[in-house]
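All the exercises in this workshop are built on plain-text protein records. There is nothing in a record beyond a sequence line and a structure line. A learned vocabulary of local backbone shapes supplies the integers on the structure line. The question running through the whole workshop is how a given chain folds. Here is such a record, shown just as it appears in the course material:

***
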Amino acid sequence: MIRSKTRGFLVAVTAAMLMVAAGCGGNDTSAADSAAKTAITAADRAEAQELFAKRCAACHGTTGMGDGPGAMALTPKPRNYRDRAWQRSASDEQIEKAIVYGGAAIGKSPQMVANPDLQAKPGVVAALREIIRGFGR
């Protein structure tokens, strides 16, 4: 019995250490701080609006309710950005990480595709986050 409890404890500690090493555990304040400090230009906002319409609205819908035409075929359904409980629970860093690296990068659906081309465009990513946050107001 003691061995079973010890083994469970070791597995939990190892998993926690791996999550921290992979950058998946806890709050990464340095990344959150950098997200908050990213300057967003008018050009970034214009590009973000265009990208949302082209890439995101197909599943998340034009009003962010997760009801775009591509949503019908997806399980799980796309995130409803108007859900205030989700808005409170999601950090800016998580939203931006999902945009660039896809849903699997934050433990969500791998059907949420990555946008690696945006890695070099932090202002556009921050502007996309603003759009998503705007649906929750």
About this structure: Residues 52 and 128 are 7 Å apart (CA to CA). The chain has one domain: 27-134. The helical segments are 2-21, 29-37, 42-60, 84-89, 92-101, 122-134. The chain has a mean pLDDT of 82.
